[in-house]
Every structure is written in structure tokens, then in C-alpha cells.
Amino acid sequence: MTFDIIIIGGGLGGLTAGAKLAKEGKKVLLLEQHDRPGGCATTFQRKDFTLEVGLHEMDGPHAKDLKVRIFRDLGLTDRITLLDLPEFYRFVNGRQDVVIPHNPEETQSKLLELFPDEEQGIKTYFHFILNSRKILAEAAGKPERSLGDFLDEHIGNEDLKLILLGNLGYFHDDPYSISLNYYLVAQGSYYGGNASFVKGGSQKLSDALMALIEVHGGTVKLNSLTTEIIFEGDRAVGVRYENKSGKNKEEFSAHATDIIVNASVPNLASALLPENQGKALSEKIKDLKIGASLLTVYFGFKKSLKEVGNRFYSTFVFDPSINVQKDIIGNNHADFKTRSFTLVDYSQVDSALAPAGKSVGAVCCIDYAENWEGLDRKAYLKKKAEVAEIFTERCEKLIPGFREALEYVEVGTPLTIRRYTLNPAGAVYGFAQNPGKSADYLSALPDNIHIASAWGKFGGGFSGSIFSGYMTAMEVLRKR
Questions:
Q1: Can you say whether the dihedral through the CA atoms of 213, 241, 417, 293 is positive or negative?
Q2: Is the bond preceding residue 61 a cis peptide, omega within 30 degrees?
Q3: DSSP reduced 3-state for 310
Q4: Do 379 and 440 share a domain, yes or no?
């Protein structure tokens, strides 16, 4: 079988690239090893509940949001419903309890009331956030610095810094090792005035993208694991893949002019490329750090958390032991009894994730595969049960009546993410966005192999993956 483009992986990057290329008349084959598209942009069913795997809030849509143009171009606008979220987040740490709006002017006013002595620092922070592209252009060629160093330079009050870092886990695990440049662009989009949730869950977005590929004549094969990229000389010409469903694995091959990789770059180097090309890519990425993973506790409730008294969509809870920025990374490795976490209450919007009268929610925190590796099944399940109980109790203290409303609970670990996405260490954001992170590894690939995922030059998250997929498709179209 011969195609114009073969896409390895059906996460948002691969799906977006496939939808654009199929729309432009290219013959597309997308191979996804899981039984559904989406990668981390997916849902699963338990009892009456649709449990959301990856999406808490997606930045936009707003005037400067590139996704608006992308969704319109692909024909997504009429296929999904984006729900506006009521606030950016609530931040709680035992000393402060403050709700941060998406509107930057409102946020500045609120923070100035709380921290009147930090007026200049607050103005400087939002000047950088709201003018990030101009500031990055002016800083081109200069050494990058960390977000933590930037905050220390301009702000003195430690609690103010922590409030601004409330959603750091959307990007990274340590303010002193995340690139200020990367953070400004990503956080700036959340302060664009709006954020949203896909009604029915992120699977609706992934399914819509898959449908668009097929509507335009493309082919999507689920349960299909790519095992090798076929080369002739120094050029990729196709792939080998196997059908994972059924008792007997069947092996197939397909050929194409271009290959788009929506899989992790480390796996591309170690498992998919021929030895020489794999070694060259491995050498290019040897100094890059793989980003953190996440732990999620999924909750199904027999009543709406609104009825219990919760008023917020997204609440970030920092343990009181976090006094300064440098405490954050240590806390991310601490016991779950004190580890910072996010509680998302999907009943605050018309999420369509549960039947009338019921609701779903999730607790999420930074975590690492190393915390779960080496356990036998009995010990693994025991630890998951303990973690579920810890966070249930912590949520009960935050929202009295939480436990009584609870009907179902399940824990997903970094190993769960690794199992379903094949990402090393269960990484959800690709490579860590450290200051000065190089993208030279992209030049180690033949010119007809392209990266369209969180492991590419746009970074992780829903927006980063969508941008990566769309821009990769545009590059292929321009080249062809």
C-alpha cells in the first residue's frame, strides 16, 4: 500500500496533521497503537461516568489564539462545543486563598489589593506576559534564564510568587529549570481573557479530528503498532506495523513519500529508526531531560459538587510547607499527604460527563514513574488505594461533604500513562522546557521525517501539540 503521508501515532499532533493534509487532498494513513485516538486527549467510561484523562482547561479561544484559525480551517468549529470556564484558578496554601481570573487587568487589580507593596513587580510580570512575542524577539540570541530567576528579580513577596506559579504544573515541575521564554508564551495565552473545556470531554475533539481525516479520504487504523520505519539508503520510504487486536498478531507494511512521527523522540531513536540513524538521533538528544509525568485520581460523584458547596472549577492546593519557590521541586517528590495538587470540578460547567444529578472531578499532581516502578501487582494496587484515600481525605478537608458525595474512585499513575501512550517515564509534556533547550535534534532526521507532537519544537499541552501538528502539515504541503 502506498500513501502520500504516513502518520505514526494518533495523539493531537498526529490527528491535526492528518486532518489538514487529508483536507488538502493528500492520501493519508494514520496508525495508532491504542484502541482509540487522542493519546492523552481521551476519556474512558466507568459506571455512569465519563472520566476525562487529560484536559482540565485549554487556553482560548480568544483573538490571538492560533487554534481559532486552525479549528476554522479544519472544519472543527461545528463538530465540537467549547465551554467557557468561570475562572483561571483558585489558589490555596494556608496563608492565601485567592481566585485568579483569566482577565489580566482584573488579576492585576486583585493582586495589587493583596500586595500593594509589589505594584512594580506585578506590572513587570504582566508586561512580560502580555508582550511575550515582542520581548522574545528582542531577546533573540541572548542566553535564556529561568522563570524562577525572573520572579526573584522583580518580586519580593514569596506568597505572591507562589500564587503566580499556581498552575506551574501545566508546564513543568520546577520554576528554576523552566525557560522563561517558553513560560511567557504558554502562560500568556491563558491570560488572553478566556479558557475552555470541550463539552463531553477531550475524546470528542480527538474523535472529530479522526472523522475529518476519514471524511477527506484518509485512513485511520487503531490497534496498529508501528514497529519500524523502512529505509532505502538514507531515506525513509515507509513503515512496518502490526495489528494488536485479536489473538494472532498480523504484520503489514505501507509506503509513503513523507513520515510524520507523533510518538516520543526517544522511542523514535531507540525503536523505529535503523541503527545508524537511531544512534545519530540519540546523540543529539542525550543532554535533553525528559519532562515530568502526572498522577490523577478520578472521582465519580452521586451528586454535584456544587450541591456540596464547592464554588470553583479549578483549585490549586499548595502545602503550607512550601514557603519559597525552591520548595516546589522538593514538594513534587514529597509524600502524597503533603504534595501540591489540583482539584478540577467538572460540575461547574455543562461538561456532559455525567448523568443529571451526578458529576465527575479529578485530582492531579506532578509525579514520576520512578515512584511506582519495581512494585509487584499487589503492592502497586495497594499503593494506588492508599493514594486514593489520601487525596479523598485532603479533598474532604477542603470541601466538607466531599467523601459523602463520592461514588467511584480510580487512580492513574505515570505507569498508566506510559502504558497507553508509550511515552518514556510516562512523560506528558515531552522534553522538559529547560532554559536554552536545543531543537538541533530535529536536524538529525532525514528531510522527509517530521515530528508532530509534544516532543517537537512547540512543546507540550493541548495547544502545543495542535500547533505542532498543524505547522508540520503546512511544512509538508509547502515542500511538496
A1: negative
A2: yes
A3: coil
A4: no
427 in a structural domain: no
Contacts of 248 (CB under 8 A, 6+ apart): none
Q: Identify the helix (H) or strand (E) that includes residue 419.
A: helix 414-421
Residue 264 pLDDT grade (very low, low, confident, very high; cuts 50, 70, 90): very high
Rounded Cα distance, 189 and 363, in Å: 23
Kindly state whether residues 299 and 193 are assigned to the same domain.
yes
Residue type at 380 in one-letter notation: Y
Rounded distance, CA 352 to CA 28, Å?
Answer: 32
Instruction: Please report where in the chains the cell 504484520 appears, as a residue.
Output: 251
Q: For residue range 360-406, list pLDDT tens digits in order.
A: 999 999 999 999 999 999 999 999 999 999 999 999 999 999 999 99
Mean pLDDT score, 145-165: 98
Q: Which domain holds residue 23?
A: 2-42+201-289+435-479
Q: How many CA atoms lie within 13 A of 201 on its CB side?
A: 22
Q: What is the DSSP string of 390-407?
A: HHHHHHHHHSTTHHHHEE
* C-alpha cell belonging to residue 243: 495489528
